[in-house]
Amino acid sequence: MRISGSNKTLTVQAVAGTYVVILGMDLPKDDCDGLLGFSIHRFDHEANKGIMLEGFKHFDLPDVASAAGKHFRSDKHPFQDFQWADYAAAPGKNYTYTVTALKGTPEKLKKFAEVKLTVTTESPSLEKNGKKQQEIHEVYFNRGVAASQEYTRRFGDLRPKNVADNEAFKWLSRGIYEALEKYVNDCKPGKHSLRIAAYEFNYEPFLQLLKATSKRGVNIRIVYDAREAQGGPKKKNREAVEAAGLQSICTERIQGPSYISHNKFIVKLEGKTPVSVWTGGMNFSEGGIFGHSNVAHVVNDEDVAKKYFQYWTLLKSDPPMADTKIKVEKLTSLPASPLAQGVTCIFSPRTNLDVLNMYRDLAMEGKAGFFMTFAFGINKLFKGVYKTSPCTLRFALLEKKTRAYAKDKKDEQKKDEQEVQHLRNMPENIFSVGSIIKDNELDGWMVERLSGMNKNVNFVHNKFMLVDPMSKDPIVIAGSANFSDASTKNNDENMLLIRGDTRVADIYLGEFMRLWKHHSFRESRTFNKNLNQTANILSIGNWWEKYFEDTDNAARRIYFSKVH
Q: How, if at all, do strands 37-44 and 21-26 pair?
């Protein structure tokens, strides 16, 4: 949900997703003289309890010192930013946020202006008249930050597998695996069937769950990737399927050996009718579920589920690549322009790049905000978007600065890096690249370590695009494809195009900003070692001036505090 409020001086807008509430603040420039920051108080109506949100930064006072992992209350050490977020909210809760602009001195802060907003965070299900009604869209994001201060604070330097009682895995899951278990466990023998298409299909507890579900009478059939693509999961998938004893209900996808069957979806049927689909970018593997950032998206709609079931049926027959492309394009033809309201499905492989061009065209329709994730570099079409889009604020979250290049193509990689840096230099563009804190040179911050669960993608595995997400007519595009030539023409992929659903857009936007914020500071520190000396110290000067200049900070202030 979105809500805004003002006391004629301070303006605040809140966007509530499931686990994230974004707050955008604004003050007239003439009122910012002496501003030392904002405090944020959150009151939980269900628990009848309030807390002051905390941060890592503090004033340089004689009686205040940093310590590894220490937090500071924002009413004593305010947030010096015009956009903040609560990343510890819970789904389906009522909260009141009190945002206060503070002036005075670090020793004696004074309230200058205050706004209160009451929000309800989103939930996968809504309760009305005592009965739970299922949403059309259920969206689940895992933690996606295995290397983080909070993980280190909770579990030290232990790898997740070495933490007792699976507590680390539960924290990293953040409900995504529990939702997957429920999706399967809710199936009733004689009533439900499951049809699964998988790329990485080797998380042993999930395969055992499917085996148990099949044994209790639920009809399950699985198609998994067994192509010969270099670095593919063929061998690991086969071993896991054999160990779980699932060979009799599995079919291998082999045709098109140099490409990958990159889907990660489950179709649920009631009788012979497809009723819902579980999809997204999360592989059915330990690293996919608990390691790098991923989203699972459930659509409870018969028309959508029917399309996915038809697609699954095609994949099960393991047709040659040429036949697959023709049939896939017939099943999901190129959508007409303008994109229709509601949900549109797009499957791959296809004979051309028309779909990728369409994504680019939709991105260029944006007027205010554009947000996109890149697990394997920025495709040239989207470099053009970041260069010429009419949006005044354009975010990108990248796993690495560029995709992986062969050793004999270093010149191409260097050119790619230069192009990305040129885009980053534009004030409209705000990029963040996956990174971690590798040392303890920064006062108050603990060393972070990778989980060891992922080999090729450590941080950002998401594949989604948001066009004007804070408008009344947002576009969300998400699924398994990496917005690349290969994911369009060569690989088995699926995407959801969702137009006009502000609830879905709010959830995706909150999670995007959570991940962007996490990696943004870490990356900035890797190329600016001066941050080691001042990163945790709050300013007593005019820190706010950059938010009123021709900078990305100003664009962020305007975008998040404004009703679109």
A: unpaired
